Amino acid sequence: AVADPAADPNDVVAAAAAAMAEVTSVEFRLDRSGAPIYIDEFQSLALDSLLGQFAVPSRARAQLTVTVDGNLTTEIGAVAIDDEVWISNPVTGDFETLPIGFDIDPSRFFDPEGGWQPLLANLTDVELIGIDDRGGERYHVRGVAPAAEVQNITVGLVRDQDVPVDLWIHPTTSLVTAAEFTTNIDGGDTRWVLELGRYGESFTIRPPSNVRDGTTP
Asked: What's this model's pTM, rounded to 2 decimal places?
């Protein structure tokens, strides 16, 4: 794939918005650094990274690496199918219906119609930074994402702030292959790095078999 250095960045982003709206499946990896982002109202579980897969219409699974109470790193699983979300207990490994006070629906990290398409369509101040080699030639564009779209692609973990976003877009498929941005919460900067790939592959995502009755935070 060869990218045109004279391409109009608005055309590149418009093509990406159309392409992302048609995605049927994808694998995504998120790495977070800087100020912690908590996935629970008790601010006990800080999200460090996750690796997940998404398939239409609304199925996703993810393996999350989290830091517990600032000193213990562990992994938990999350599965989302339609309106049901299950999360694994870090001690027992059994899955439970997402407890009240937790906000980690993995299907919302990649929602092509409700997340990525409107984010790309509503970018402002779009500019072409250059052509980068990031797994092959990619358009590197930058724009400002409105607060509502940032909230969507961060699963509601970041609210009420417009954010400059760097995007790497495949020149042939117009699919987004990477995104980076920085958010600020309570005076601390958090850096997000998202890699996207394996578009169109078949992922079998089923409800977890080891679901425990009741919900225990």
From this structure: 0.90
How does pLDDT run across 114-167, given as a tens digit for each residue?
778 889 999 999 999 999 999 999 999 999 999 988 888 887 788 889 999 999
pLDDT cut 70: percent of the chain above it: 94
Contact 48, 73 (CB under 8 A): yes
Query: 120 with 16: CB under 8 angstroms?
Result: yes
CA distance 54 to 29: 11
Distance CA 216, CA 7 (A): 53
pLDDT for res 213? 61
CB of 172 closer than 8 Å to CB of 191: no
- Grouping H, G, I as helix, E, B as strand and the rest as coil, residue 217 is coil
Given a contact cutoff of 8 angstroms between Cβ atoms, the answer to whether 62 and 51 are in contact is yes
Enumerate residues 6+ apart whose C-beta is below 8 A from 45: 38, 39, 66, 67, 68, 76
123-132 contacts at long range (C-beta below 8 A, 24 or more positions apart): 123/13, 123/165, 126/9, 126/10, 126/13, 127/9, 128/5, 128/7, 128/8, 128/9, 128/12, 129/166, 130/5, 131/3, 131/5, 132/168
